[in-house]
Amino acid sequence: MVNCSTTCPDPGPSGVDTSLKKTQVGKGPQWKEFLLDDVTESSTLQCFFSCAGIQKDASLGITMYQPPEQVVLELQPAWVALDEVFTVRCHVPKVAPLESLTLTLLQGNKELYKKNFMSLAVASERAEVTFNVQAQREDHRCNFSCHAKLDLSSRGGGLFHSSSASRVLRIFEFSQRPQIWVSPLLEVGTAEAVSCELARVFPAKEVTFHMFLGDQELSPFLSWEGDTVWANATVRAMETGDQELSCHVSLGPMEQKARELVHIYSKLPAFPLPREGSLPLKMTTESPGDFLISAGRWETCVGMWLYPAFALFP
Fold first, then answer.
1. For residues 61 and 56, what is the distance between their CA atoms, to the nearest angstrom?
2. Predicted pLDDT at 250
3. Is residue 251 part of a domain?
4. For the chain, how many structural domains are there in total?
5. 224 Cβ neighbours under 8 A, 6+ residues apart
6. Residue 274 lies in a domain
7. How does it sit in the membrane (predicted)?
8. Which of 76, 88, 116, 240 has its CA 20 to 30 A from that of 283?
9. Structural domain boundaries enclosing 56
């Protein structure tokens, strides 16, 4: 609603010049009142009256404003390698007038970067700010946010504030491959300790391990010291032969895998000690069905080891 009035005692022709859609809703000898419809942009309105043949006018600036109701913060990427550069971006989808806007990027409660649009506002300008930061360990799990302020006090209006939701940044270091510690020979049915180690990793306590012996998933427990983490497990193989022990390690977007081949063997049966005076015998053959038994040494028989036998003679 706009009221245009004059102190001229006997005014002549009067009215309002504007590009906006207007409707006169009231008038008197020294005033006229107009309703402005569908205001979508800022404009200047001119009110004029003629007094004693002289036209006098007054201008009124009309500011179309939209408070910053939505403020969007983006971290790109969400997981960042140590010493790499990450981008903090904030934008306001709908806000006006742009030249009255200030955007402030915050890391925790600390001001990271501020941008006002007073001298930058042009038709193509977007309500956004972008800032690049080099990742440090102390940035891990820091909260980042963006604050928008629309200040219309210089135009006779108010002050509007809005903030984005916080975003959590994660920093990582993952430059080494995991290493498996295991004996190359494991006895079937016997519990054996195995370990998977990852060094130079940050944050060590957020590393995830999955360990397998063949298709059997193990249940490791973790231990840490500085930037090194170990996954320790107990394995019990129930079948003989070669099997693969694997260790899958992940942290954020990074994954590594280590493998070791182990041989599962069955222990030879125990034999009684010979009686006093008896001698260990050997048995060899030169042709099927022809065996020679003698004392003193281990021999092979048809490509196979023979188990020792003992003479039972007194």
1. 17
2. 96
3. yes
4. 4
5. 204, 205, 230
6. no
7. Single-pass type I membrane protein
8. 240
9. 2-62
